[in-house]
Amino acid sequence: MIAFPEQPTNEPWPSAEWRVGEPAADVDRAEVDDALRGIREKGDGDGVSLATLAVHRGRIVAEQYGPDTDADTTLVSWSMAKTVTQAVFGMLVGDGLIDIDQPAAVPEFADTPKAGITVRHLLAMKSGLEFIEDYVDDTTSHCLDMLFGAGIHDHAHYAASQQLLHAPGELWNYASGTTNILARIAGDIIGGGEAGMRAFLEQRLFAPLGMRSAQPKFDDAGTFVGSSYLFATARDFARFGYLYLRDGVWDQRRLLPSGWVDSSRTEVAIDPDHTNFGYGAHCWIWRDQPGSLAAHGYEGQYTVVVPERDLVVVHLGKVPAAARPALVVKLSGLINAFPTIG
């Protein structure tokens, strides 16, 4: 597996501010600019790109914003928040507070066939629970019903109450409900309800990384909506990606336990609808970028970590589903404008 590059000795950690500069001499500036132009320019029905930036070797070397958006504008993560939830579990594992191979502590699972579901099954999206992840058809979508319908007040209870269709670990099924079950498990371990989880996220993750804009949202039951709702600037989402690029270490301090990020990018499934993407532990894998991992979100939200190029690329926008494959091609063009580590 591709190793994670170390922090360049001449670059400060971006806990306070990102350093911004021109790409290194071995980067083709014209190719980077062409890629940014392609991302920026949209045809009818292609939506809009609101923020795109690239962090190469520790500094921002490419950055552009769309209408009514700048470096201080907070934008929604959508499902990129899932990987933030995954980071919380890394910290809990590092603290010795959870064994992810033990049955998940979920009241709705007790004394049912669901009792065999482990946290690892949940992280891999292999719970076996029924859940239709659809963002359009509210007559069939469990996701829409959870966020805006019958489950609006308690997302985790809604998701955990779904029937078991497959043996745990048998079938991969991407499900926002799975993440909200995890978020409630984490909240129960941390304690203190919404205030406790807010404090944990701020003190253990956002503050060390300098993610001063980060604002998580909670449901009425006090559970972090880890499936969908974290607001932050593009630069702060890049900080989160940079933590993973540096193997869970930030400014000589290990925030995620050794091996956690490697396990995140260990492929457990391939998206049958988009076979260029694999899936690890609540992280996507860009299969044409060896060793990569990524957080993905609805409307074209991407934080892509490419260790082989010492690179983090962030894109935030409002891009419809039909236009997203073309966007991915354009983002791949930006990624490929940066050289691999020799």
UniProtKB/TrEMBL annotation:
Q: Which residues cross the membrane?
A: none
Q: What InterPro entries does this protein map onto? A: Beta-lactam-related, Beta-lactam/transpept-like, Diverse_Enzym_Activities
Q: Where is the Beta-lactamase-related domain?
A: 45-315
Supply the Pfam families for this chain: Beta-lactamase
Report the SUPFAM superfamilies cross-referenced here.
Answer: beta-lactamase/transpeptidase-like (SSF56601)
> What is the name of this protein?
Unannotated protein
Species source reads freshwater metagenome
The opening ranks of the lineage are: unclassified sequences, metagenomes, ecological metagenomes
